[in-house]
Amino acid sequence: MYALALKCRNCGAEYELAPFYVCRKCLGPLEVKYSYEELKLDKKELTNRVKSIWRYRELLPINEPLKFLHMDAGFTPLRRAMRLAEILGLKKLYIKDDTVNPTGSFKDRPASIAVCKSIEFEFKAVGCASTGNLAAATASYAAKAGIPCYVFIPSDLEMGKILQIASYNPVVIAVKDTYDIVNRLATQISELHNIAVVNVNLRPYYVEGSKTPAFEVCEQLEWTTPDYFIIPMGSGALLCAINRGLKEMEVLDLMRNDVKLVGVQPEGCSPIVSAFKKGMDDIVPIEKPNTIVKSLAIGDPADGAYALKALRESGGFAEAVNDEETLDGMRLLAKTEGILTEPAGGVAIASLKKLVEDGSILPSETVVCYITGSGLKTLEVLERGIKPIIVEPDLNSILELLGGGKYGGG
Amino acid sequence: MYALALKCRNCGAEYELAPFYVCRKCLGPLEVKYSYEELKLDKKELTNRVKSIWRYRELLPINEPLKFLHMDAGFTPLRRAMRLAEILGLKKLYIKDDTVNPTGSFKDRPASIAVCKSIEFEFKAVGCASTGNLAAATASYAAKAGIPCYVFIPSDLEMGKILQIASYNPVVIAVKDTYDIVNRLATQISELHNIAVVNVNLRPYYVEGSKTPAFEVCEQLEWTTPDYFIIPMGSGALLCAINRGLKEMEVLDLMRNDVKLVGVQPEGCSPIVSAFKKGMDDIVPIEKPNTIVKSLAIGDPADGAYALKALRESGGFAEAVNDEETLDGMRLLAKTEGILTEPAGGVAIASLKKLVEDGSILPSETVVCYITGSGLKTLEVLERGIKPIIVEPDLNSILELLGGGKYGGG
Predict the structure, then answer these.
(1) Which partner for B107 in A126, A347, B137, B235 could form a disulfide, CB atoms 3.0-4.6 Å apart?
(2) Shortest CB distance from A335 goes to which of B169, B337, B379?
(3) Which of B193, B377, B390 has the most A C-beta neighbours within 10 Å, making it the best mutation to test the interface with A?
(4) What span, in angstroms and rounded, lies between the C-alpha atoms of A321 and A299?
(5) Residue A25 and residue A383: Cα distance in Å, rounded?
(6) Closest C-alpha to A271, from A161, A202, A179
């Protein structure tokens, strides 16, 4: 394994690779440190490997990755979006399509890493605090591993997400409060109970799964990078992880990293975007997020400050859109590319549209837009705009409906 | 292209490759005829190809397959199901997991082939008659191709499926009657309008997409075959297509085909299973299917007689289960393997359970169970059994809930 230690992101203090997440000296968050110098990845050899997160196993903090090949999230398609690009006025637009991950979202990546690590650490149960996607992913991988699972969610989640989560048979604890409170409770419980709460006490390992889309996109673009990488932000952890993945690719001499990161949030919960736009370093938490984009309704983003720094360093942007624009973004992606996204993807598409329209992103620039989850999980948000034509089983009335003209034959 | 002609499945009459589907001589159904003698597939070369239906492009009736590589359904995972196998009492069980296809079902395979073919035939619009999955797939690929799409569905479909279909922006015509009537209306409309109705006038091309799981499973099992291949049956077309794919693999000398096919249906609509069990050659249509498994609620199965013949020739079985068993099958798969299936997959798992319990399938035999679609499309059927624990945001009451004991630490 090339993972060497846990290292504090603030003061640099180092610790052994154990199930903890806070620096004992400065209370900063910990991350995994690797021995990049000893690591050499060969592009040609890589292309013969499994098409999953385990393709880049040396950059994941698991002792025996080959034991876990069946936990196979990742290596999702990078789809060239010709029709959407044309409508937006871009030459080269790609959709990194995580709707087809096993439980339908990018969270399969970090959740599977964390469940694997919980097995290596010999935990007897796993859990998570979640706005929905992570709970489904954690419960699914726990089911596959045969480990008890406890998920903590806000009780106002979309019913579709709750049903999906529950299907994998975890203990579902729905708390009548915001995600931020749910997360705080799960943190306290992780300290009192011997549970691997994947995004709390296994967080340094967990987030490593979220950097894998960066590796895949670079490889899928034949070891080049896009000009822009558009990433939805909840806690900000995903953006930080992708940033880390891009930097690792460069350190390992696989490509040159000049990607500009674009972090997007819904207007009803956009603390990171607000700080970016105001040029502030501190993020003002939102107490009561108000948006249909529940997967991004994190008012007090744990990695917000790091995300803000990454956005600025990369020379990118931050953008927010309202719920109506989000729904339009979802519909636009579905009707031009046949991809049904959850609202977070609608935020990404709508933000991209805005940034092209206002000239921030130029028509000649290459864009990768990360669609993080499937719209099958959140169908209820579409209900408003949908009206099938209901007819009696009568040929003539249907023919009349079809207009007889446009595609008429006989 | 290795596709030579359309050939009548009954009388053998041959026709040019055009958009029609019924033999002018005997009214039998047509299928695509290939020049297998001229075709040589190299196993090693195959493994370097794209991981989609286009991997086996020589066995698909498309003139320019390379033009359509972006229509990339298929090559879904074959997952070893260790925990489920143990519970069922089997040594080797695999799940062919089509829940991760782009629109969440196996119908992405035939729909994408048919949409490609409609482009080659220069149709100006596509459509389909569907119990849900096909409509979503057709609408999605039509959106991607930028072609108008008309879908005909029974108006009592699951709301989730209707919302998914509508998101891709086709004209949705919901008919107040059974699938069989919807299908008849779509057939009449295909004759009057210049629309490529994918499962009607393009049916011979369309069904070719459904044989691709056979190719993939053989390759994924390192060019061996399972003892049993469990396949849900609606119209019976999927089972016939997989049978055809297995035979083609043998003709091309890629493996020996001794697979026993198992066709499964819900009790509330099991005309093929009934005929099989009674030893009859004729299938008695069901006028009013009554089952939660709407994707299989086809009372008058177009390919029923052919499916029956294939089942018998292979030495396999046919089995039916009731709605309660179906739900149990869905829950069992989710909680042991972390895979959420639509009800059709629940029928497959529950039928497998029955066949192992009654000794039809032996513990030592290798089984592949085809999970044809994602449970995210039909979450409402799960609603009954699901009850999250709703709690106030209070640490002590949650700790009490967790029992403090089992995984208790501090």
Answers:
(1) B137
(2) B169
(3) B193
(4) 16
(5) 51
(6) A179
pLDDT tens digits for range A26-76: 999 999 999 999 999 999 999 989 999 999 999 999 999 999 988 889 999
The answer to whether residue A176 sits within a structural domain is no
Predicted-assembly ipTM surpassing the 0.90 threshold: yes
Residue A287 covered by a domain: yes
Residue written as tokens 């409509």? Answer: B135
- The tally of domains found in chain B comes to 1
Contacts of A339 in chain B (CB under 8 A): 102, 140
Cα–Cα distance for residue pair B346/B371, rounded to 1 Å: 8
Chain B within 8 Å of A103 (Cβ-Cβ)?
A: yes
Q: Is residue A314 part of a domain?
A: yes
With b for 16 or more beta-carbon neighbours within 10 A and e for fewer, the A46-80 pattern comes to eeeeeebbbbbbbbbbbeebeebebbbbbbbbbbe
In this prediction the pTM is 0.95
Amino acid identity, residue B205? Y
Three-state secondary structure call for residue B195 = coil
User: Helix B179-192 and helix A395-402: axis angle, to 10°?
Assistant: 50
Domain of A11, in residue numbers: 1-38
pLDDT tens digits, B170-206: 999 999 999 999 999 999 998 888 899 999 999 999 9
Is A86 found in the same domain as A30?
A: no
Tell me the per-residue pLDDT of B278-305, one tens digit each, with 9 for 90 and over. 999 999 999 999 999 999 999 999 999 9
Residues A281 and A378 in one domain: yes
Residues 6+ apart with CB under 8 A from B235: B298, B301, B302, B303, B304
Within this chain, do residues A333 and A265 fall inside the same structural domain, yes or no?
yes
The two tokens of residue B79 are: 């997952």
- Asked if A96 and A5 sit in the same domain, the reply is no
- Whether residue A1 lies inside any domain: the answer is yes
Residue of A nearest to B333 (CA): A168
* CATH code: domain of residue A366: 3.40.50.1100
A-chain residue closest to B395, CA distance? A185
The residues near B403 (Cβ < 8 Å, ≥ 6 apart) are none
Judge if A221 and A311 occupy the same domain. Answer: yes
- Tell me phi and psi for residue B137, to 5 degrees: -65, -45
